[in-house]
Design a protein that fits this description.
CATH class of the largest domain: Mainly Alpha
Strand order of the largest sheet: 1-2
Largest sheet: 2 strands, antiparallel
Distance between the termini: 102 Å
Radius of gyration: 33 Å
Helix content: 55-70%
Number of strands: 2
Number of domains: 2
Structural class: mainly alpha
CATH architecture of the largest domain: Up-down Bundle
Number of helices: 12
Oligomer: single chain
Strand content: under 5%
């Protein structure tokens, strides 16, 4: 009976006790830090964030969460260094970064306090990134073709009498520039100022922030076009007049349509000047 039972277990493995593993298996198991192909295991390099970035990030997080409100005075560099457990030079570098971000500034007596970043604070960095990525005028123009008409539409719904006076004053500046045949740089400044004003009147802060880098990058292109096509000043003046009239009439659809027509006209200008639309953006003036 016992023999019959054992005979049914043909697939039962032999006892491990006393068995000997092959020599190759013993060699592979000898060093747990080697792989099957006898190469040592490798670890990825650690990327440790610099201490000053950790300090600036901690302060920035408090500001963004609203725990440090605009106007709140920060402690001295020495006090901050003691709290973070770092050197004063590390805190100083962190503060410099936060100042560049527009999150803090020095007031009277050089004391640091929290501030609200303005529309212009983030624009240079974004514009610089667009230039470094070789973004073309066509790409910028495609975005403007969406944002600028929408800004005009919203402005027509939100404009106050004071806003309309500001728009009219901008028109008069462009008209005076056209009459005295001013410089290409002055024309670009007035044109960019006009569209920034329309965006401000729209009241949409996200839109204002999104389009601000375009202001910086449009300027070199406008100067270049004006130098090749002096007649564009008159065309811009007419377009701006139609846009202001539509905003004053509270006609949001008409304001949108005229602004889109105005921005689309840049494509025609590039064709007349024989400049490819896929030309990479030029660096904006830093001064």
């Amino acid at each position: 009976m016992l023999c019959a039972t054992v005979g049914l277990s043909d697939n039962v493995p032999e006892p491990i006790r006393g068995s000997r593993q092959p020599k190759e298996a013993l060699l592979n198991n000898a060093n747990p830090l080697t792989s099957h192909n006898d190469e040592p295991l490798r670890f990825e390099r650690l990327h440790v964030m610099p201490a000053y970035k950790m300090v600036s990030g901690a302060i920035e997080e408090r500001i963004v969460r609203g725990e440090l409100k605009p106007g709140t005075q920060l402690q001295t560099e020495q006090a901050l260094a003691e709290q973070f457990g770092v050197n004063r030079s590390t805190v100083r570098e962190a503060i410099r970064q936060l100042e560049q971000e527009g999150l803090i500034e020095r007031g009277g007596g050089k004391r640091l306090h929290v501030t609200m970043p303005g529309v212009h604070d983030a624009a240079p960095r974004a514009a610089r990134a667009l230039v470094l990525h070789h973004v073309t005028f066509e790409e910028l123009w495609q975005v403007a073709l969406v944002l600028e008409p929408e800004a005009a539409r919203l402005a027509a719904l939100a404009a106050t009498p004071a806003d309309l006076e500001d728009l009219q004053a901008s028109l008069e500046r462009l008209r005076a520039h056209e009459q005295k045949q001013g410089s290409a740089q002055a024309h670009a400044d007035i044109d960019i100022e006009f569209h920034a004003l329309v965006a401000r009147i729209s009241g949409n802060r996200a839109l204002m922030l999104a389009r601000e880098p375009m202001n910086l990058l449009y300027q070199p292109s406008l100067v270049r076009l004006h130098g090749l096509l002096p007649q564009m000043t008159q065309r811009n003046l007419q377009a701006h007049q139609h846009i202001v009239d539509a905003i004053a009439a509270r006609d949001a659809d008409l304001a949108h349509a005229w602004t889109r027509k105005h921005i689309a006209d840049f494509q025609r200008g590039y064709a007349m000047a024989k400049i490819p639309m896929n030309t990479a953006l030029q660096a904006y003036p830093l001064g």
